[in-house]
Amino acid sequence: MAQSMRSDTPPSIAAAIDIGSNSIKMTIGRADGNGGVEQLDWASEVVRLGQGLDQTGLLDEERIENAIETLGRFAAQARQRGATQVVAVATEATRAAANGASFLDRVRVETGIDVRVIDGQAEAALTFRGLTTEVDLTGLIVVSDIGGGSTELIVARDATVQAARSLPLGSGRLTDRFIASDPPRLEELADCETAAAVAVQAVQALDLPPGSETRLIVVGGTGEFMVRLIPDEAHIDLAAVRLVLAKLATLSAAEVADEISIPEARARVLPAGVAIVAAIAARVDPARIEISRSGIRVGLLLEALSGGVIPAGDSETRAGSGGKQARTDSSVASSPRDASARSFRETMSALIAERWQTVLAAIPIALAGTDIEGVHDVRVASRRLRAAMDVAAPAFPGKWYKALHGTAKEITGALGEVRDRDVLLEALYADRRAAPLAEHPGIGRLIDRVERERVAARSEMESYLRQLLAGSLRDEVERRFAAVEAPPNGTGISTGSAL
Amino acid sequence: MSRAWPVDDVDPEEPVIDNARRVLAVRIAEFYSFEPIVPHPELSEALHDLRISAKRLRYTLELFRPRFGKAGERQIERVKTIQEILGTLHDHDVRIDMIGDELSQLMVEQSRKTRSDIADASPDEVAAIAAAALRPPPDDPRRGLIALLGREHAGRRKAYARFREMWETCAGDGMRRDLVALSVRPLLDRPAKHRSPVA
What we know:
Distance between the termini of chain A: 29 Å
Strand content of chain A: 5-15%
Radius of gyration of chain B: 26 Å
Order of helices and strands of chain B: HHHHHH
CATH superfamily of the largest domain in chain A: Exopolyphosphatase. Domain 2
CATH architecture of the largest domain in chain A: 2-Layer Sandwich
Helix content of chain A: 40-55%
Low-confidence stretches of chain A: 1-8, 308-341, 483-490, 495-499
Structural class of chain A: alpha/beta
Strand content of chain B: under 5%
Number of helices of chain A: 18
Oligomer: heterodimer
Largest sheet of chain A: 6 strands, mixed
Mean pLDDT of chain B: 87
Helix content of chain B: over 70%
Shape of chain B: elongated
Distance between the termini of chain B: 35 Å
Order of helices and strands of chain A: EEEEHHEHHEHEEEHHEHHHHEHHHHHHH
Largest interface: A-B, 61 and 56 residues
Radius of gyration of chain A: 23 Å
Shape of chain A: globular
């Protein structure tokens, strides 16, 4: 990952680049002598690499060109500032896209930057590492890093991570899905917040003790730009966030861009990002909300400037009582074993854990019933999970695996009954619209039948899924699949194909 | 639904790339075991099983897609197209069954009503009841169901024709040869150390 420009002397200045779904950002810095980072320069470009990804499964060619051009420019800027290392990571958009690998190949060839793709856990760990130098981490805190394609949530107490979760929620993703108007309509913002609330609701780690004085720390561009629309930065609460949302419903992207001095493309996805903040704040009910401009790039700089590795046993990333460790990708990269030699069992175990998490995070959206695609999303996620579990079955001969495999299949089946009827109804309504009047009673009779079946199927599905969420499935998944290293790097497994 | 063919020689302790080849080889064999049913449009269930087999093959290719590169992408596209056309065919089969079932139920209901009407009717009314039963009114639901059934059958024929054409095109282009080549390539092309994670 590190591009050494001068390998014979220890690096004193480094550049950290974060290739997200919305923006590519770079921070150049050096060690400040107190365990922190002195930031010397920065750059940011809104590329929206993840735009349309949910629809096509691919990174758009034009956006790839823009990204490569931006990275080339950033590399030159880093050299000019005397950086001896360039470290770069790519997150959700690149890890999910079918052509993510060829994009990174081109980046390496055309800019000389070797980019590391990191998973949500590593993203969360690096973000937290970055915060340790700039934010008071005593007491109970929830950190949210809202990206364009995913949102990382970290729960920590007294600078020790208790849990880290990555949700398939992002400002770009929700914008693509729910916001068509400019300015966004209030209903569109409500749809964004509902979708976010449903996903956030499922995060058990956010079930915090009542009365705890929790602080919510929002990192990343969403927090930074949102706060520019809040008159009194010292007192940010849920009401203030909701006022920002209301204000954003009256301003076009161009007006927002003008008011807070950000690119229009970034302003376009800001409302959905703020809706995610509102959903998280509503769930956590924090004593106060804070904004931090630190984050993943500072974590990366710390990693690079301290020799490239965040110790796996570092207290900042050690788990709490749950026993699961918030892993950093660097611990994988620095493993003595070549990643490609990781065993099939280890690799598949990590992949299956990740896919289970995706299914479990998506189920509440299907249960909410506010988005017809919610059912489809869980079904697709469960199919992807089953694809991995089918292939991995010979590596896990235990009965417990068969039981979990069976559960994955049942989830697909339970949702399939509803989804099939959703699709059938859509076709029948279209048929009736196009048919002569004399045919309407017959088609109507069929529609009534399918509607009745759909209600019954939906009720069965809801009861099944609620039972699943209430049971020990989540714990069982974590227990069975958590004892392995982080998901594979360079092992040849695709973590983001659109199955 | 047919069960997936087992992959007996997976070694959990070996690297992924070695096992990917083994899994793919079995999925290719399973997929082509359905070749004999391709010319038989009437074998709805077997065509559905072929679709499921195509899905398993595609998922395997997608799961290991970083290993298979551009050649793999081409195979994914081919298998996906075949699977999708077979999906359309299956949707028609499901709807044909459902409409046929609804039509049967409707006719049973109408038949019962006719019997009940006749049982309660005076001898003078029987002829009128029979006429109504034999010449249904313009809004009789059977019209819509029968018309719909006709459209579904036409759609199914079209989907099957597209499937045959696609299958033959793929066969002519050497799809099986290309797939088999993929299933042996990973062993010959191990990744260099420290490549990009999804490369």
